[in-house]
Design brief:
The protein is an alpha/beta fold and about 300 residues long. About 55% of the residues lie in helices and about 15% in strands. The protein folds into two domains: about 160 residues, Rossmann fold, CATH 3.40.50.720; about 120 residues, N-(1-d-carboxylethyl)-l-norvaline Dehydrogenase, domain 2 (Orthogonal Bundle), CATH 1.10.1040. The chain is globular and about 65 Å long.
Amino acid sequence: MKIAFLGLGKMGAHMASRLLAAGHQLTVWNRTPERAAPLVAAGAKLAASAAEATLGAQAVLTMLFDDTAHEEVLLGSNGVLEALKPGTLHIVLGTISTGLSERLTAEHARRNLPFVAAPVFGRPNVAAEGRLWIVAAGSDEAVAAARPLLEPLSRGISVVGPEPRQANAVKLGGNFLISAMIHGLAESFVFAEAQGIDPGTFAETVNSALFQSPFYAAYTNVMLHPPPEPGATMETGAKDMELFREAAKSRNVSLSLADQLGVLFAEGCQSDLAKEEWSVGQYRMAQRRSKLPAH
């Protein structure tokens, strides 16, 4: 299939590579063209603009950073939606607000463009392995058309409803759970340290006794042994937490833990931790608040 892929950040570059390896004809675009070099070397075409990348495409996949980037690329002057021919499938893979998802749903319907929201769970190394978990929502026909393009990227796909915003809501809710888990781990590690117990020993013991969760084990490893390059930063966590809280408020739901985590993220992003690995930043915040020195 002839595909346009827009956005080649830490996640998008790996995802585009998976589609290219699956045999699709790929035209790519990124604000920083240099990031496309490995894909071009592997056979992809590089477009000078996002709209140009979509010319003749049967499907367009976007993996952009935030609401602002989506609005600029999709809805701005010379935006992508105006360039697409009716019937062209558009899949939004990035994490966006439910409000923007609702707006995009209306804009796609007005132009007769099938639209699927398909945000992903997984870090860049998981994207490179094609083992993301994808949450999809849209009409039955659009989701069926999107599935062959999502399968090379994922180890599984959950279809959660007919409204694209529902997929975005699940993604935001999942990220909230990740932040809540990290916060629980961080404060537990602080508690263990205060008792003279190695945090790694504490985590291994409790996880073996209670959860048997690879997820807890993986995040413990990241928090106690920070990677040289962050998979996601504290700023990203703050952005997603705000989107989650906004989505809750739009349905008249009050969430006390989310509000508390929002304060913590805001504090962290105003400090030297803004660019720190998301989970490590939360751990450092817990240590600072408890007055324990960071290791």
